Amino acid sequence: MAYAHPIHRRINVPVPAPQIVVYPRTLVFSPGPPPPVGYLPGAIPVVPNPTFPGVVAPVALRLNPAFLLRIDEQRTQELIQFMASEGLVPTPEEEMKRRDAMEQLEQIVLVWIKKVAWQRGLPKEVIDSTSAAILAYGSYGLGVHGSDSDIDALCIGPSFATLEEDFFIVLRNMLQSRPEVSEIHCVKSAKVPLMRFKFNGISIDFPYTQLQAISVPDVVDIFDPHIVVSDETSWRSLSGVRANIRILQLVPNLKNFQSMLRCIKLWARRRGVYSHLHGFFGGIHLAILAAHVCQRYPNASICALMAIFFDYFSHWRWPEPVILQDSSIPFKYPDGRSFMPILMPCSPFEWCNSNITRSTFDKIKAEFQQGYLITRDLARSDFNWICLFEPFPYTKRYSHFLRICLTAHDGDELRDWVGWVKSRFRSLLLKLETVQGYCDPNPTEYVDHNVAEPNVVFFWGLSPNGSFSTNVDSLKEDFMKSVNKEDMYSGCQGSPCKLDMLVVQSCQLPKHIHLDWSPQRD
Ligand SMILES: Nc1ncnc2c1ncn2[C@@H]1O[C@H](COP(=O)(O)OP(=O)(O)OP(=O)(O)O)[C@@H](O)[C@H]1O
Ligand SMILES: [Mg+2]
Ligand SMILES: [Mg+2]
């Protein structure tokens, strides 16, 4: 079966087609390289494994293999049904809409590049032959997107089309004039500068890479540093595509990897540990963790992979780094400041950006442990996947919350304001940890209907042992220094964008806000 995906159209690296799962499959253990030091397949009693001495197998393996196989198939079926009931896989109509958006974007960048070539006064034959292209990466490129995921699409252009002028001005203006495009804005100061907009309602993240060529060839070897114009930004912007390709090459069974990652992402959202800006995981972190497990257990079914994932990472000796099995990786050990170092599987072999702090590290570990307790015995008669995906019970866990309310004049201003403040949240989290000890920054964005202006409200759980006498005014004052540091909101005090902070008790939460319901997408 061939795996066709937009990402593979212009690269010359073969990506393996999904393999048929080969038996014997096992419930919680499959032959493979020994797990890393510190890993024990389960807290359930273990027995020596005769096939792989030194590697222990769960006691469950002493059970009748036919029974195990039946359970394995049953739990896998139940998980697939659960995924369907949750709508984890987009419908064919949704897929068509995404493909259509990609095709239209490709047409737009083709027109754009001819226009830029003409504006530069390049010879007619160059104008005729030049081209630009689009490559999908992120969750869409991996084929693990949900119906509300964004599309991460890298625009590749020739050497004469610059980021500052041609991409951020000329192309932006062209996009802005299209009826399909809305909410467009530029994020120029990021490590990977990009445009962000909606195309027919689908969110698009749109960075740019400049090639060392007058035209983008049909086949691009994106692993060759010489093809990219010699600026670090262009090379870095390509890293998302390169990382995806390495992941797709390294996982032994693509279909199982995709299903498992979709489930893990749902779990992370439901348990409030999915949002890079709030100090939790982003999509790339979970993709690498999932790929790591898939590499080591090539024959495991989806349900076994889920169980192994929680077993594996609840016993992981953090800050031991997570690195995909790939002998070609030349990397330096992390500097010791990172709580959960995860290596990007491609040049420049950097650690994934992480905002994880002491509090969010503790929460993630607790959630791994909880996931492990739920999935360690899939043969239990009362086992139900729903338990794994229960929304995190904020109001049962915390009696007090930090309420952060952001308001603006209109929806456009609010969107920019919220994006900006979120990009500064790490400093607020660190400050809260020093005064409160622990904080659980619930990533879900709520709307308070009791506030007249357009608003987004966050409720962060505060330490059950905290005094709750935090001086919110001084906390806010400190945080606003970080928010106002750059030009963008330096005049915030006088601007229509506002930020309010307050400690509230769970009984003071507005009636229409339900913290314990399924979180929306970040
Ligand atoms: N913290 C990070 N460190 C390194 N690369 C990152 C980081 N965050 C994002 N990226 C790059 O940008 C890509 C897209 O990120 P994005 O936040 O859209 O997540 P995603 O994996 O596409 O999941 P989602 O379905 O939530 O959009 C990632 O695949 C990765 O290549
Ligand atoms: Mg994405
Ligand atoms: Mg994105």
List keywords for this structure.
522 residues; alpha+beta; Poly(a)-polymerase, middle domain; Beta Polymerase, domain 2; Alpha-Beta Plaits; 3 domains; 5-stranded mixed β-sheet; 4-stranded antiparallel β-sheet; 38% helix; globular; disordered N terminus; binds adenosine-5'-triphosphate; binds magnesium ion; ATP-binding; nucleus; NT_sf; EC 2.7.7.19
Note down, in words, how this protein is organized.
The protein has 522 residues and is of the alpha+beta class. It folds into three domains: 170 residues, Poly(a)-polymerase, middle domain; 153 residues, Beta Polymerase, domain 2 (2-Layer Sandwich); 115 residues, Alpha-Beta Plaits (2-Layer Sandwich), CATH 3.30.70. Helices cover 38% and strands 13% of the residues. The protein has 16 helices and eleven strands. Strands 3-4-7-6-5 form a five-stranded mixed beta sheet. Strands 9-10-8-11 form a four-stranded antiparallel beta sheet. The longest helix has 28 residues. The N terminus is likely disordered. Bound molecules: adenosine-5'-triphosphate and magnesium ion (2 copies).
